[in-house]
Amino acid sequence: MQIHPFFKHRSAGVLLHVSSLPGAHGIGDFGPSARRFMDWLEATGWNTWQVLPIGPLGKGDSPYSSPSSFAIEPLLISLDLLVEDGLLPASAARSTPELRRGNTRYQAARRFKEPRLHRAFETFRNDGGERSRAYRGFLEHSAEWLGHWCDWASEHRGGDPEYHAFVQFKLEQQWKGVRRAARARGIRIFGDLPIFVPLESADVEANPELFQLDRSGRPTAVTGVPPDRFSSRGQLWGHPQYRWPAHRKTDFDWWTRRIAAQFERFDIVRIDHFVGLQRAWHVRAGARTARKGTWRRSPGRELLAAFQDRFGSQALVAEDLGSVTPAVRKLRDDHGLPGMFLLHNAFDEDDSSSLPFNLPVHSVLYTGTHDNDTTSGWWRSLAPRCRQRVRDCVGGIGATPSESLLSMALASRSIATIIPMQDILGLGTSARMNIPGTPTGNWRWRLQKGMLKKPDAARLRRLASTTGRLDGRGRPQI
Q1: Residue 42 bears catalytic tag
Q2: Rounded to an integer, what is the distance from CA 108 to the centroid of its chain?
Q3: Are the C-beta atoms of residues 149 and 164 closer than 8 Å to each other?
Q4: How far apart are CA 193 and CA 115, in angstroms?
């Protein structure tokens, strides 16, 4: 098992999606607020910023049901940076109190940003930007996916293909600026790759032979997970299942390009629902629930081998939560991927092996993820016997449950610890990011101006130092 250098030193990081950054235009973006957040993160001594997928949003504004594996969500573009580029006048970035305050407002942000993006495109075109070396280089580098995306976006979202190519060009430029700023601060950015893609996507439209579809283009089998203790109906996701023999014929070319695209944007990449690379729950198309289905093998071993043969060792993380079997663990371990653990789950049952001081070193520990309640909300709903397990583990509860679990996570054996920003701030259930199985009202929590304070950064730095997650010079290990 070859372990990537990123996972040889103890580290700490924050889970905060880009959309959750504060800002003036209804949603967080790649502009000044991203750099201000990284300034604060640098002051904590924590060296990892984990985000959710940054691809175009799908149904319910979900980043996990993106219509493209390669494009970036246009709402994440910074109007302030377009002003700096001379593509918009300063007045175009002035917003309203409605957009500056409160949670993410997707529709309002679209109504505000889209006309300004079209205006920036017209300026770009009139100034001859389409003939620039940078733009031509972007078109050449992105040729394998960009045309498909622009045609799809033009058909489904309006605007001509050239406009959508311009938007992706500026998004790519701005994200590269975020990456440079992160490196200058000693911060690595941790991305997330959804394992499946939706039927209504540029990926399926451009590569129908790679998916289980009938002659009419409708799926014959769809994705989900079977019933468990959390859901008696299971979870019916509805993505088309992969036609793996077609992927084998191309030596998994689409998949390896898909993962490689993530590593052009991130230092570390989590494969969501890693279980699905070993076996996937196949549900008959048209079923109303995921109760009835079959487990079918997936060629994850061949896929990961093809990727590593082509691109070498990369810092992949396996999101191996759920129906984990010995075969899933072996697939993960044979390719040197750390798995994931959630502190919230450690106290549900009387299982000492999942407690933080018994975890495998080669792992990533979270208090909870975007799919969980915040630690404060989790504690309020926790059964008395589970609360007692927490107290027995930590010798009582500190100032708040959030602070206690944060300290417990940092002190754990896991090589990497990631804490959601909501838990760092000790926020309650109203700050929860997502409730699985609910199609609307998710992905909306956003930092407010003034929430990131210097005393909190100093406290987090002391905790990182005490728990060995800083190197000898007081700098993050990167």
Answers
A1: no
A2: 23
A3: yes
A4: 30
**Residue 236 β-bridge partners:** 224
CATH 3.20.20.70 matches 5-70+182-466? no
Per-residue pLDDT at 476 exceeds 60: no
pLDDT per position as a tens digit, 140-157 = 999 999 999 999 999 999
Please give the DSSP secondary-structure letter assigned to residue 2: P
Amino acid in the structure at residue 64: Y
Question: Encoding tokens for residue 332?
Answer: 């993960």
Quote the pLDDT of residue 398: 66
pLDDT digits (tens, 9 = 90+) for 279-302: 999 999 999 999 999 999 999 999
Q: Are 76 and 18 in contact (CB under 8 A)?
A: yes
- The one-letter amino acid code at 130 reads E
d(CA 45, CA 474) in angstroms, rounded, equals 7
Report the b/e string of 73-110 with b at 16+ CB within 10 A: bbbbbbbbbbbebebbeeebbebeeebeeebbbbebbb
* pLDDT recorded at residue 57: 98
Query: How many CB atoms within 10 Å of residue 315?
Result: 20
Residue with tokens 């990182």, as numbered in its chain: 464
Task: Identify the residue whose tokens are 């209504």.
Answer: 200
List pLDDT tens digits, range 157-175: 999 999 999 999 999 999 9
d(CA 250, CA 247): 5
Rg for the chain, CA atoms, rounded? 22
Helix (H, G, I), strand (E, B), or coil: what is residue 279? Answer: strand
The pLDDT, as a whole number, for residue 264 is: 97
pLDDT of residue 229 exceeding 80 = no
Residue tagged active-site, from 29, 42, 272, 320: 272
Q: Check residue 475 and give its pLDDT.
A: 45
CA separation for the pair 144, 139 (Å, rounded): 9
Cα–Cα distance measured from residue 297 to residue 244, given in angstroms and rounded to the nearest whole number: 10
Say what the alpha-carbon torsion angle 190, 193, 194, 200 is, to the nearest 10 degrees.
120
Phi-psi region of 352 (alpha: psi -120 to 50; beta: other; left: phi over 0): alpha
- Give the active site residue among 319, 320, 373, 423: 319
pLDDT band per the 50, 70, 90 thresholds, residue 393: confident
What average pLDDT does this structure show over 419-433? 97
Any catalytic annotation for residue 127? no
Average pLDDT in the chain: 94
Interval 91-146: pLDDT, tens:
999 999 989 999 999 999 999 999 999 999 999 999 999 999 999 999 999 999 99
Q: Among 130, 205, 251, 371, which one carries the catalytic annotation?
A: 371
Consecutive H or E run containing 111: helix 106-126
Q: Distances in Å between the alpha carbon of 110 and those of 67, 155, 431, 467? A: 17, 17, 22, 43
Contact 274, 222 (CB under 8 A): no
Query: For this structure, is 371 an active site residue?
Result: yes
